[in-house]
Amino acid sequence: MKLTHNILSRGTMLAAICLPVFALTMPNARAEPTVEVLHYWTSGGEAKAASALKKDFEGHGGKWIDSPVAGGGGSAAMTVLRSRVLSGDAPTAVQLKSPAILEWAEQGALANLDDVATKEHWNDILPKRLQTLMQYDGHYVAVPVNIHRTDMIWANPELLASVGAGDVPKSWDEFNTLAEKLQAKGVIPLALGGQPWQEVILFENVVLGIGGTEFYQKALIDLDEEALKSDTMKKVFDEMRILRGFVDADFSGRDWNLTTAMVMNGKAAMQIMGDWAKGEFLAAGKVPGKDFLCVSTPSKDGYLFNTDSFAMFEVSGDDKVAGQKLLAELIVGEKFQETFNLLKGSIPARLGVPMDKFDECALQSEKDMQASQGSDGFLPSVGVDMALPGALTGAIVDTVTSHFNSDMSSDDAVSKLLENIELARD
User: Fold this and answer.
1) Which of 222, 252, 272, 393 falls 20 to 30 Å from 196 in CA-CA distance?
2) Between the CA of residue 335 and those of 48, 354, 364, what are the distances in Å?
3) Residue 252 φ/ψ, nearest 5 degrees
């Protein structure tokens, strides 16, 4: 049975298009598996990782049509995607974040991958929370490529040692004490790029560290009013105000990789950033544990994640349907999960992939990720658009950046947060 829906783009007037969803068309056995892949992996390790997937797909007899779109952290690619879908020419596979997966699935544009998921036992080899993010209405419509971690401190061990610290702080109070010592010595304690998403990554780390995993879930995912207006949230903004004092005066607009370079070159002691920062250190020939430290930010059992994933759009043609199924199978396959993540700097989304080729930062990340599965501590990052739809993420971003770049009180920040979220819901 086929279901059809009208595609209605949020916030804009678009022509109604009728697309089938969850059509279980059986591919012709003689069809050459073909995919057009729309993605925004266009530089460095990302481009190498994309090439690895292309090589694997072609090695299995498939035809790969590459459609990279650079710029805007994926926003340019999303503009192209909307135009393509509206013109009736959807790509077969598209790199998407989970909130966008949900939006396109609700509009009826995504294909059903349940037959591949059953054949490959995805329910047994993917973390439970990732399974739900790859599904719509209980059906698989996308596949995860990797897991990035956003609750990480990257530190310069020489600068820490200069004030008698042999390790990265394990609580926010310890962080503040260490930062004060570094500042007194003339060292920038916290390297931060003054861009909204970077400030929100800092914020979500403080939410996790001060409030814990249950509070993070209630406040930043469920958007529970009691959690949002609680004394705990006020303490989070109090800490953000303290952290603002540890950032250098020239932080505004600075890109994250330039901020990482400050730690690498001894201009700043620590950076709080996702584990893609590791690629900058490795590209410069730095050795983890020796030239730089990689440790989770203060929290008990939390693990804030980001995942790259591919959604399969509803297409016609046996060759394209066969291509989608082959691509989905290969992406979750053990071989590709290892190859891709070694190049990307992330860890496999598939559980049980051998980790003997990965560095110590990845090994610790994988260990903590596994531990978080039993404690409900495996939580999506707000700062990289994993947790909420765009408007609600924007409400948090606006509040955090307004507070961080002004003298706004914690009480006023909490009030503004509630107000912005309510407006975004309307």
Assistant:
1) 222
2) 15, 10, 21
3) -60, 125
Distance CA 353, CA 147 (A): 13
* pLDDT, tens digit (0-9, with 9 covering 90-100), for 142-185: 999 999 999 999 999 999 999 999 899 999 999 999 999 999 99
CB 143 within 8 A of CB 279: no
The DSSP string of 150-181 is --EEEE-HHHHHTTT--S--SSHHHHHHHHHH
* Encoded amino acid at 277, one letter: A
| Percentage, residues of the chain above pLDDT 90 | 82
Tell me the C-alpha distance between 54 and 31, whole Å: 18
Structural tokens at position 40: 């925004």
Burial class of residue 166 in the structure, from the number of CB atoms within 10 Å of its CB (0-12 exposed, 13-18 middle, 19+ buried)? exposed
pLDDT at 13: 33
Could you tell me the strand order of the sheet in which 34-39 lies? 63-68, 34-39, 93-96, 309-312, 142-144
Work out the mean pLDDT of the chain and round it to a whole number. Answer: 91
Give phi and psi for 369, each to the nearest 5. -60, -45
* Site of tokens 């700043």: 268
pTM score, whole prediction: 0.87
CB burial of residue 118 (10 Å; 0-12, 13-18, 19+): exposed
364-419 pLDDT per residue, tens: 999 999 999 888 899 999 999 999 998 999 999 999 999 999 999 999 999 999 99
- Write out pLDDT tens, residues 30-41: 679 999 999 998
Please state, in angstroms and as integers, the Cα–Cα distance from residue 349 to each residue in 101, 309, 337, 366, 381, following that order. Answer: 17, 10, 7, 10, 15
Question: Could you give the CA distance from residue 292 to residue 294 in angstroms, rounded to a whole number?
Answer: 7
Strands 309-312, 3-6: pairing is: unpaired
List residues bridging with 21 in a β-sheet: 3
Q: Which amino acid is at 53?
A: L
- SS3 for 306? strand
